[in-house]
UniProtKB/TrEMBL annotation, chain A:
It is a single-pass type I membrane protein. It comes from Dipteronia sinensis. Its main location: endoplasmic reticulum. This is Dolichyl-diphosphooligosaccharide--protein glycosyltransferase 48 kDa subunit. GO terms for biological process: protein N-linked glycosylation via asparagine. The chain crosses the membrane at residues 412-434. Residues 1-21 form the signal peptide. Subunit of the oligosaccharyl transferase (OST) complex that catalyzes the initial transfer of a defined glycan (Glc(3)Man(9)GlcNAc(2) in eukaryotes) from the lipid carrier dolichol-pyrophosphate to an asparagine residue within an Asn-X-Ser/Thr consensus motif in nascent polypeptide chains, the first step in protein N-glycosylation. N-glycosylation occurs cotranslationally and the complex associates with the Sec61 complex at the channel-forming translocon complex that mediates protein translocation across the endoplasmic reticulum (ER). Component of the oligosaccharyltransferase (OST) complex. Keywords: Endoplasmic reticulum, Membrane, Signal, Transmembrane, Transmembrane helix. It is found in: Endoplasmic reticulum membrane; Membrane. One of its GO terms (cellular component) is oligosaccharyltransferase complex. Residues 298-436 form the OST48 middle domain. It comes from the Eukaryota.
From TrEMBL, chain B:
Pathway: Protein modification; protein glycosylation. GO terms for cellular component: oligosaccharyltransferase complex. This is Dolichyl-diphosphooligosaccharide--protein glycosyltransferase subunit 2. Belongs to the SWP1 family. InterPro entries: Ribophorin_II_2nd, Ribophorin_II_3rd, Ribophorin_II_C, Ribophorin_II_N, Swp1. Component of the oligosaccharyltransferase (OST) complex. Residues 1-20 form the signal peptide. Pfam families: Ribophorin_II, Ribophorin_II_2nd, Ribophorin_II_3rd, Ribophorin_II_C.
Length: 436, 692
């Protein structure tokens, strides 16, 4: 009894800590470390920070060269996410370095990197670790002579109004971002072989990355839509990273500024930056697009217990429940493209699951007439969503000797022959013995 | 810290360009709307009296009329704070500051009580903040109650004890037992000293004021500078607190400086460019998102605008991008920092030069005309020699009233980068395929780069592709854009970018495919041609899809480089896969049922024939034993046989081999017994018959 009481006390006293920390049950980040070059950024970018605070994040602002910063203490991570708003930092203070940030992400934590024209090698290195490469030319900026934002003060067309956003409701919210997004900074490229990196905000086909002050002597290394202005990375462990080539795009000035794209007569009162970056931060901090699968069930049609093995050509039912984290609770995830594979070396059956719109996905199919050790596999990877990878092993056996078909009509002549023979034999014995 | 500070302005301001100083815009309506957003009272009041003061003071300076009404709730807090006996000098100071704006009705007796309390606090004060709050409060009471007889008894003594905290470099210490000197403290001390001077019953010794003025000069020696002409003070303390950045430090100094210069009689010879630089610093911050920073910025600017030493005037341009084609005028505004009107003055364009060649001026010494309606100075018309491009314009502000030259600081020269844009004429655009050896033209097409083009060409690796066009500025001279790219995009999305070079007016590029085959990865097929011409000063920058060229390149040798992998469309990468359904083994072919039944009938025919044959032969059972015992055995024998046969049927239907064999063994023994008996009976009967 005393032990029981002790457990209860322990659980209750731990509850507040459990509730606020990052966990699979509550995937949204809570504690965010923001590293700045200067505390003035806290004030000049306050709209972005305020939107985070109003959504319940605990932001901790530190100078990037503060000697007392660290991501973990006693092997425990102190933060769920890291925001690097320190493009010019050459060396972090404290125990933070490229390797520790990589470890931080490898353990499933999220990261926002904002670079700028004066981006240091350190920030470039962290970005490269994350899978994007900033233009190596340190003086280069993204220039767009046809897609620039009309401005009275920025005449060199480095202030870009970009509206080439990724079409993904999960990353950018279901509301369409109408106003172009203002961007002033450096471009990067994403490795085409890397399937985890996505361009969220791409430059227009006429843009290029070069030093606006000097004449071009060779073709720029980055041109056109291959230039990514903002990219996101979702690692295999569902850690999420945002890399932006501009710190000023997060600033109050850009949030509040009106925008008019060159060549277009529509003038928007407010740029799309606030909406774009708020929605993007919801995604990167796992307020959206985080899936979980529960209650994987399978059984023979008409039964309810899960068998330990199936026989070839059995009919079976498979069901799984999928929920999406909405920031506060788990909501049923509704889509029509969850697919199940019945897999042994390669999929034998690949079927789209039907949904009841309440999170339950189910299907039924006939087990193939091949025996061996199969797997039920749900590999759900969709743009912006965390990936679901469920697999359950199940053996499939062939027919037993007595499970084959009997009394085939084709064999009736043989049956007839045997039995007429037997009846004849009986009659013959009687006749043979007693006939005179 | 210094390094991060260097990045500070770059982050907040537009990127400063070349040697041109950034333009600082005075406070405008965007500040007013931001102020209303930042200072939002909760339930009719602000969190603290300090915050209330900051909000009210900001609203007052910015002249916001639609401010939230907090007076009823706040006046209650103010009178409570003033009448409470437990209020610290700081509480009193904050309450009085709020009261100075709100003008709440406070009893004269309440003030009496506070005055004595504060007087006692002044005489017992040891740290700078004690002095600051109590003297500040007394000053505020004096203003609010119009008590002319409110004096500090020992003003000079207090002055001396505050001065004792100063350091040799112009900075101050917070208290005598705190050795660390601080720039913020200097500002606080100056403000306090100003309070002491204004509260003094008699004139304070001029020499002491002179010493303090000397301190101010020394403090200004430690001022720091950004590249763009902004000056600021910064705390040199190692342990940087968040709210002691350059903004709060500079604003503290500005407050102290202006307060001191207002009361001190002697003239202070501060360099005007530093005052202007401070104003530029505060304006350069833009719109802070933090209410404290916002207040510091606005409050300091207000002090700078109303100070006695020198009022900075800010030269700003509504637009630095001027279109030559639209015949826009270059406009210049001169305002005070808070955006109010400047005294009569003239703006002169000292010189203007191209960013690429600093030595040759295009315009020199021109006076800008004044438009009294819009309160702007404008340049009537640019001379014809001025072409599109980026220029540095150097302005100078000259005050009409020479007496006020001491009051206003305008800075010596203001460098501004101006982009003169225009419509660039594109002509003689041609694309051609040339034969390699002779350079003869095989096919040639004219292009209209501003319009639509759909050229289809074909070439092999022995030919050349030649593209040329001309660019002319509105003034008729050659134009060299920053961006002139020719892009070839293969069907597989492999892209190649070439710079289009120029010779004079003519831009041309010749692609010799023989030398390019390796670069093109030996990829034959359709290449889309895209031409991009753009420049910051070109109003009609273009991105034109010219058409395509069908290239016939030789087969790739084995060691040729492979084209780089191209990005996969993310939408297709994540789409659902095609469904797979298992194809089951086809069941074995079987004869139709009818055939089986027919054959069953045929199989049964011999049996029926056998029965008919038996009947024909006339079988009988006359040999069946007549006596009861053999008859019983005979019946049992045949029942046994029938049972065995039935067992076979059961075996076929449902029994397994083991049950069948078991039963068969019993039946076999039984059959052997009864069979032996009946067969021996039959045998003996037949032998009897033979012998008999």
């Amino acid at each position: 009894m005393a032990k029981f009481l002790l457990y209860i006390t322990l659980t209750i006293s731990l509850l507040p800590f459990l509730a606020i920390s990052f966990s699979p049950e509550i995937p949204t980040d809570r504690r965010v470390l923001v590293l700045l070059d200067d505390f003035a950024v806290k004030s000049s970018h306050s709209l972005f920070f305020d939107s985070l605070k109003s959504r319940g994040f605990e932001l901790e602002f530190k100078l990037a060269d503060d000697p007392n910063i660290g991501l973990q203490r006693y092997g425990q991570y102190l933060y769920d996410a890291l925001v690097l708003f320190c493009p010019s930092v050459e060396r972090f203070g404290g125990s933070i370095n490229v390797a520790s940030i990589a470890d931080f992400v490898d353990s499933g934590h999220d990261l926002i990197i904002a670079a700028d024209t004066n981006a240091s090698d350190l920030i470039r290195e962290i970005s490269t670790e994350s899978g994007v490469d900033f233009d190596e030319n340190a003086a280069a900026m993204v220039i767009d002579h046809t897609g620039y934002a009309v401005s009275n003060t920025d005449g060199d067309h480095t202030l870009i109004a970009s509206d080439d956003l990724i079409k993904s409701d999960v990353i950018l919210g279901s509301k369409n971002i109408e106003a172009p997004v203002l961007f002033q900074g450096i471009g990067h490229s994403v490795n085409p072989a890397n399937s985890l990196v996505l361009q969220v905000l791409a430059a227009s086909p006429s843009s290029y990355s070069a030093n606006p002050q000097s004449k071009l002597s060779s073709p720029p290394s980055l041109t056109g839509s291959a230039i990514s202005l903002v990219s996101v990375i979702q690692a295999r462990n569902n850690a999420r990273i945002v890399v932006a080539g501009s710190l000023s795009m997060f600033s109050n000035r850009f949030f509040r500024s009106g925008v008019q794209k060159a060549g277009s007569s529509t003038k928007y009162q407010k740029s799309g930056n606030e909406e774009f970056l708020t929605e993007l931060s919801k995604w990167v901090f796992h307020e959206r697009g985080h899936l979980k699968a529960l209650n994987v069930r399978h059984h023979k049609v008409g039964e309810s217990d899960e068998p330990s093995m199936y026989r070839i050509s059995d009919d079976l039912d498979y069901s799984v429940e999928i929920y999406e984290w909405s920031g506060t609770s788990w909501e049923p995830y509704v889509t029509n493209d969850v697919q199940l594979q019945f897999y042994m070396m390669s999929p034998y059956v690949l079927k789209t699951l039907s949904t009841d719109k309440k999170g339950l996905y189910s299907t039924s199919f006939k087990v193939p007439d091949v025996y061996g050790v199969f797997q039920f596999k749900v590999e759900y990877q969709r743009l912006g969503y965390t990936s679901l990878s469920l697999s359950k092993q199940i053996p499939v056996r062939p027919f037993r000797h007595n499970e084959y078909e009997r009394f085939l009509p084709a064999a009736y002549p043989y049956y007839g022959a045997s039995f007429s023979m037997m009846v004849g034999f009986f009659i013959f014995t009687v006749v043979h013995l007693y006939s005179k | 810290m210094a390094r991060s500070l260097a990045g500070f302005l770059v982050l907040i301001l537009a990127i400063s360009i070349c040697d041109a100083a950034s333009i600082f815009q005075p406070i405008s309506d965007s500040h007013r709307s931001a102020a209303l957003d930042l200072f939002k009272p909760v339930d009719g009041s602000f969190a603290s009296l300090e915050e209330t003061y900051e909000a009210l003071r900001t609203f007052e300076i910015l002249g916001i009329n639609k401010k939230p009404d907090v007076s009823t709730a706040t006046c209650g807090t103010v009178s409570k704070a003033l009448s409470s006996s437990s209020s610290t000098p700081k509480d009193l100071f904050d309450a009085l500051r709020v009261n100075s704006i709100l003008k709440c009705k406070i009893n004269a007796e309440v003030f009496e009580g506070i005055i004595s309390k504060l007087q006692a606090a002044v005489s017992g004060a040891s740290s700078l903040h004690d002095f600051y709050y109590s003297i500040g409060s007394l000053g505020l009471i004096k203003d609010q109650t119009s008590k002319a007889d409110l004096h500090l008894s020992d003003a000079e003594g207090i002055f001396r004890s505050i001065k004792a905290l100063s350091q040799s470099d112009g900075r101050w210490r917070y208290s005598s037992n705190n050795p660390e000197s601080s720039t913020i403290a200097a500002g606080v001390a100056l403000e306090t000293l100003a309070g002491v001077v204004s509260l003094a019953s008699s004139e304070v010794d001029q020499s002491m004021i002179g010493i303090v003025q000397n301190d101010i000069m020394k403090l200004f020696d430690s001022i720091e500078k950004y590249d763009d002409g902004a000056f600021y003070f910064d705390e040199k303390v190692v342990n940087v607190h968040e709210h002691s950045g350059p903004l709060s430090t500079s604003s503290s100094v500005v407050r102290g400086l202006t307060a001191f210069t207002t009361v001190a009689t002697g003239s202070l010879n501060l360099p005007g460019d530093k005052i202007l630089g401070l104003a530029k610093f505060f304006l350069g911050i833009g719109i802070p998102g933090d209410s404290k920073d916002f207040f510091n910025q606005i409050d300091s600017l207000a002090f700078l605008e109303s100070n006695r030493v020198s009022i900075p005037l800010i030269l700003s341009l509504p637009s630095t991008v001027v279109s030559l084609t639209k015949k826009e005028n270059l406009m210049v505004k001169v305002n005070t920092v808070l955006g109010s009107k400047a005294p009569p003055l003239t703006v002169k364009l000292v010189r203007a030069y191209s960013t690429s060649s600093k030595d040759t001026s295009i315009i020199e010494n021109k006076e800008l005309s004044f438009d009294p309606e819009r309160v702007v100075y404008f340049l009537d018309a640019l001379p014809d020699s001025v072409d599109v491009g980026s220029y540095i314009f150097v302005f100078k502000v000259v005050l009409h009233d020479s007496e006020r030259k001491d009051v206003y600081v305008t800075g010596t020269l203001t460098h501004v980068q101006i982009f003169l844009t225009g419509h660039v004429k594109i002509g003689n655009a041609e694309i051609a395929v040339l034969d390699n050896d002779l350079g003869t033209i095989e096919t040639q097409r004219k292009l209209d780069l501003a319009g639509e083009n759909a050229v289809s060409l074909s070439a092999n690796h022995l030919q050349k592709l030649h593209l040329s066009f001309q660019l002319t500025t509105p003034r008729g001279s050659a134009f060299k854009p920053h961006q002139a790219f020719l892009k070839l995009r293969h069907e597989t999305k492999v892209e190649h970018v070439f710079l289009v070079g120029n010779s004079g007016k003519k831009f041309e590029i010749t692609l010799d495919f023989l030398g390019l085959v390796e670069k093109l990865f030996y990829l034959s097929g359709k290449y889309d041609i895209q031409l991009t011409v753009g420049d910051a000063v070109m109003e009609n920058s273009l991105l034109s899809e010219i058409g395509y060229v069908e290239l016939d390149l030789p087969e790739a040798p084995e060691k040729a480089p492979r084209p780089p992998p191209q990005a996969v469309d993310p939408y297709s990468r994540y789409g659902p896969k095609a469904e797979i359904s298992h194809i089951f083994r086809a069941p074995e072919k079987r004869p139709p049922k009818e055939l089986s039944f027919t054959f069953l009938g045929l199989i049964l025919l011999p049996f029926i024939g056998f029965l008919i044959g038996l009947l024909r032969l006339g079988v009988n059972l006359k040999n069946f034993p007549t006596s009861s015992v053999p008859a019983t055995f005979a019946i049992l024998f045949h029942v046994g046989i029938a049972a065995v046969l039935l067992l076979y049927v059961l075996f076929w239907l449902k029994l397994d081999l083991f049950t069948t064999l078991k039963t068969l063994s019993f039946l076999g023994v039984f059959l052997m017994f009864v069979g032996h008996r009946i067969l021996s009976h039959l045998a003996s009967a037949s032998s009897k018959l033979k012998s008999g």
